[in-house]
Amino acid sequence: MAIEVQNLHKSFGDKHVLQGIDFTFHKGKINMIIGASGSGKSVMLKSIVGLMEPDEGKVIFDGVDFHHCDMTTKRELRKNIGMLFQGSALFDSMTVEQNVTFPLQMFTKNSVAENRDRVAFVLERVKLPGSEKLYPSELSGGMMKRVGIARAIAMNPNYLFVDEPNSGLDPLTAKVIDELIQELTYEYEMTTVVVSHDMNSVVNIGDNIMFLYKGKKEWEGDNKAILAITSGPLEEFVFVSDLIRRN
Amino acid sequence: MYKLFYHIGRYVLLVRGIFKTPEKFSIYYQLAIREAVSMTNGSLFIVVIISTFIGGVQTIQIAYQLETGLLPDSIIGSVVAATSILELAPTVLSFILAGRIGSNIASQIGTMRVTEQIDALEVMGINSKGYLLIPRIVAGMISFPVLITISAFLMVVGGMFAGQAGGEVTVTEFSQGMTEYYDGFQIVVMYIKAVIYGFLISSISAYQGFYTSGGALEVGEASTRAVVFSCLAMVVADYLVAELLL
User: Fold this and answer.
1) A90 contacts B125? CB cut-off 8 A
2) Cβ(B137)–Cβ(B203) under 8 Å?
3) Shared-domain flag, residues A128 and A69
4) Measured at the alpha carbon of residue B242, what is the angle toward residues B40 and B142, in degrees to the nearest 5?
5) Does one domain contain both A167 and A244?
6) Nearest to B116 among A74, A89, A105 (CB)
7) Residues A206, A221 within the same domain
């Protein structure tokens, strides 16, 4: 049970951003796509979740070819996808409760009470109980990420996608978010895909890591193997900061 | 020219796309009513002020042009009512509403685009075009006729009282002129225009917002374009309605 990416290509004009990526994202693990800015991480994530149509290749969610299936199957599959965006992408005009309830209202026949219980549960799960009536403008960056996670897991998805979870956060809050993602992934056995260039995250929570370099998969491995790298662009990427030291 | 056809084509595809995989009717219904109430309430003050004054100014200017005394003063009432119902209330007021409502729709949707809120809808499997456009278009087609009705009424009332206050025409003469030359079809034309303008302003503004890319600056530009293109579409529609119906 996993997401398989096969021979993924995506170009914008002359710029060949993804050049035949093959990779498997495993269930119950934190799969990370890492790479420098402009390496194609976000394009890859958007191609996987269907926000972009790849030029070539397949994205297979547990046997379902996402880009070549019918609308009904795609719609059903999407109900199993949760995503946390870089800027959280909470709906400004809605309270925290309304944001988290939104997918439940759209796709379930739950009663108001059932939805309220579910919202209370997921907010408790992301350690934000009692924040139901707040608006996104009243939340800090870390709180917004947590509400974003709460909304993403409200439908109990099988797949969780996270785009740059730590951008704009202080190291302590970033660690809390990383741990939350890890906890939820293991607890609910989700296939989690995290796009990041934060090496602290990679080392702390990366179970299955792919390093993208100039639109190609340069390396794959886990968070232990990545620290043993001794040459090439990945070595430069990983050890650019003095905070990350070789074993 | 190529760019014009590109935008028209993309606009048509957007409007067509709103009907693909519609969400729950009850949700659209609630959103449309909320939008319609918000559009109407939010524009009411400006509509009342502008309409009343336009009516008053019309009476004074028509009276000034009829100073020769060859025509009865009651004609002022008929001209004010006819121009208000046929053109000033629906068209001129809609230009103002394009600035008030159109820019609001474009900036709301544009902000949602640049802050990835539309992407969030799409990842959830929601038809973002339908979810964002249908309630706003329906709301536009409901609130425009309401606002334009209020506007036409206030233009006539404003004209009547301005005439009385300035001594150009009495309320009795004004009313007599209005009733004497009354043509119910003008009301029909006014509502046809109101519905068309409501649709055009809300859909064109939504289009501008939906395809915004970049940041805050581009949201502002989309908002400006929404007003400009809505006004251009309205004058074309105004001409076509006049040509076809009158």
Assistant:
1) no
2) yes
3) no
4) 20
5) yes
6) A89
7) yes
Which one, of B140, B123, B141, B134, lies nearest residue B20 by Cα?
Answer: B134
Domain extent listing, chain B: 45-58+73-245
Residues A89, B21: C-beta atoms closer than 8 Å:
no
Confidence of residue A227 (pLDDT cuts 50, 70, 90): confident
Within 8 A of B112 by CB-CB distance, chain A residues are 91-92
Question: In this structure, what CATH number is given to the domain that contains residue A4?
Answer: 3.40.50.300
| Structural domain of A133 | 90-155
- Which residues in B have their CB inside 8 Å of a CB on A? 20-21, 23-24, 27, 111-112, 115-117, 119-120, 122-126
- pLDDT by residue for chain B (246 residues), tens digit each? 788 899 899 999 988 888 776 677 888 899 999 999 999 999 999 999 999 999 999 999 999 988 877 788 889 999 999 999 999 999 999 999 999 999 999 999 999 999 999 999 999 989 899 999 999 999 999 999 999 999 999 999 999 999 999 998 999 999 999 988 888 899 999 999 999 999 999 999 999 999 999 999 999 999 999 999 999 999 999 999 999 998
Q: Which residue of A lies nearest to B25 if distances are taken between CA atoms?
A: A106
Contact call for B120 and A92, based on CB within 8 A:
no
Do residues A172 and A66 share a domain?
yes
A244 plus A194 within the same structural domain: yes
Residues on chain B touching A106 (C-beta within 8 angstroms): 23-24, 27, 124, 126
String of b and e for A127-160 (b: at least 16 CB within 10 Å)? Answer: ebeebbeeebeebebbbbbbbbbbbbbbbebbbb
Which residues of chain A are within 8 Å of residue B20 when distances are taken between CB atoms?
71
Query: Given an 8 Å threshold on Cβ–Cβ distance, is A89 in contact with B23?
Result: no
A136 and A68 part of one domain: no
Tell me, yes or no, whether A161 and A148 share the same domain. no
Gyration radius (Cα) of chain A, Å:
18
Least CB-CB distance to A79: which of B24, B122, B125?
B125
Q: How many domains does chain A have?
A: 2
- Is A198 contained in some domain? yes
* Cα gap B46→B54, rounded to integer Å: 12
pLDDT band (50, 70, 90) for residue A244: low
| Domain final residue, candidates A132, A155, A178 | A155
Q: Do B123 and A49 touch (CB under 8 A)?
A: yes
Q: Is A35 left (phi over 0), alpha (psi -120 to 50) or beta?
A: left
Q: In chain B, what are the helix, strand and coil shares in percent, each to the nearest 5?
A: 85, 0, 15
- State pLDDT tens for residues A201-210: 898 999 999 9
Global ipTM: 0.90
Q: Per the CB < 8 Å rule, is A89 touching B120? A: yes
